[in-house]
Amino acid sequence: MSKVATFFGLKQANEDILQLAGRLAILLPIVSATIQLSTTFFMIFVAEALGGGSYIEGLALVGVLVVIQMGIQTILDYPTGALGDYIGQRYVITGAFLSFALGFYLVSFVNTSTPFLYLVLIYALMGLGNSQMSGSFNAWFDNNYRAAMPGDTERKQYGVFWGKVGMLFQVVATASLIPGGILAVVLGRSWVFQLQAILCVVIAIVVMFVVQDFPEVAAMRTERPSMSEYKNLLGSGVRFLFSSKFVKHLVIGGCVLMSATMVWGNLILFPMYFSYLLTDVAVSSFRTVLFLPGVVTSERSGVWAKRFEPQKWIPRFRALQSGGFIFYLSFAFIMLAFPPADTGVMMQVMIPFTQIIFLELPASNVLPILFMTATFVFTGLFGGIAEILTQRELLDVIPNEIRNSMYSLAPTIGTIIAIPQIALFGWLISVVGFPFTLMIVSIVSLCGMMLVRDGLRHPKPVLEDKSETSLISKEVAAD
Question: Which of 76, 87, 156, 253 has its CA 20 to 30 A from that of 406?
């Protein structure tokens, strides 16, 4: 057995699957490093520009921009996913990174005098890129994995592989956080955005050459879609979603959980970081500390997932995961008991031989930061296992010809659910504060988990490869 097969847990691997695994294992970490470079300060940078130097003053308008971005993504997510199913995922992935490249380049010129419509254009480009990106890599790999690995009937090797890829993703993401923060301090945030633009163009070019389908997968597509065929493909994914209660509740429940995560990531997470940690480098360093345990849990999640029965354990892990019911409640109580302080005795750690502040925070913020770290580490263990168990359940349920569209439909639904929440919670935060807002978000997450649990109680659909599309319509009629 080759070293690649051993590392990824692909015991019955042939040359095709090893080549496929190697390409994905290289591409995804590079993508992670490129995107992660500025995640610590991207939103804060825009908020400061809108708020005349104060990110708190600019948060309300950032919420408007996020809603616009999500609206664009919602409109285009599913159609671009269906397009990827028909013409191949490499084309939509390439389009995604060209959109990201232009967006990062434009944001590098943002300042306090930038017109709001200029920022609308940037967020629209990011929404366009996200709509093309969502589910495309997964769909490309899954379609080709099914063709190359028919012997992995229980999809346990599949789960181990994704655990290893997740580990690589986390390692590279972790390694890029502190350099991103330091580059922002030394050279400026705008310079980092321009670097990301260049890297996105490089990735777009590479994708066109390496994201290729096996001949048997490519042969499943016709040469070009007619408008009527494309519309039928769009409808097939929606019909399939409602073809059984198993699929409907499992997918929509996951979308509700996803919507709560969008609220957390777009409205709460980074303002919370900066309120306790104050500087780019400090926030980047803290995020690095949080990512390190995730490297281990991501690698082990695929192995550990083999020990758990999906129907019983997916709901439990969804409740305990990062972005789950317990997670949001824990942060609500931490912020309620230990509100952030920006005055008092300050602790500073300098980077050796420089004048760059590596870490600066009030001494009174140390205890809540320790509690936050413990919460992130504990809950981070469960999300990866839940995701792999869910992927195993859906791998042989979704027909190949609509796989990308289904993987795009889920984020679309999640975004639709998240948009009114972001509008509501953006206002609510200014009225009741972060702790009580987090309590309400936890209830949303709990509702998603309950839907997932209900879906897993229904019979799992079984599809035959030879007539997957016709079977969709039969299931819809029977339901």
Answer: 156
Tokens representing 465 are 């490869």
**Range in 261-265, 406-410, 475-479 the model is least confident about:** 475-479
- The answer to whether residues 175 and 168 touch, using CB atoms and an 8 Å cutoff, is no
Residue with tokens 């039928």: 232
Distance CA 88, CA 147 (A): 16
Q: Flag whether 451 is in a domain.
A: yes
SS3 content of the chain, % helix, strand, coil (to 5): 80, 0, 20
Tens digit of pLDDT for each residue in 18-27? 777 777 777 8
Is residue 428 pLDDT above 60, yes or no? Answer: yes
Please tell me the total count of domains within the chain.
Answer: 1
Name residue, tokens 């940690």.
Answer: 277
Of 92, 88, 405, the C-alpha closest to 220 is: 88
353 SS3 class: coil
Please give the structure tokens belonging to residue 432.
């009741």
Residue 5 lies in a domain: no
Give burial (CB, 10 Å; 0-12/13-18/19+) of 223.
exposed
Q: Are 448 and 256 in contact (CB under 8 A)?
A: yes
The rounded distance, in Å, linking the Cα atoms of 62 and 432 is 19
- 4 domain-assigned: no
As a whole number of angstroms, the distance between CA 222 and CA 63 comes to 42
Host domain of residue 217: 15-478
* Rounded distance between C-alpha atoms, residue 357 and residue 347, angstroms: 10
Instruction: Render pLDDT for 368-400 as a digit per residue (tens, 0 to 9).
Output: 999 998 898 888 878 878 888 887 777 778 777
CA atoms of 316 and 227, how far apart (whole Å): 43
What's the burial of 335, exposed, middle or buried (CB within 10 Å: 0-12/13-18/19+)?
Answer: buried
In this structure, how many other beta carbons lie within 10 angstroms of the beta carbon of residue 346? 12
Q: For residues 402 and 135, is the Cβ–Cβ distance under 8 A?
A: no
C-alpha 286/C-alpha 42 separation (Å) is 16
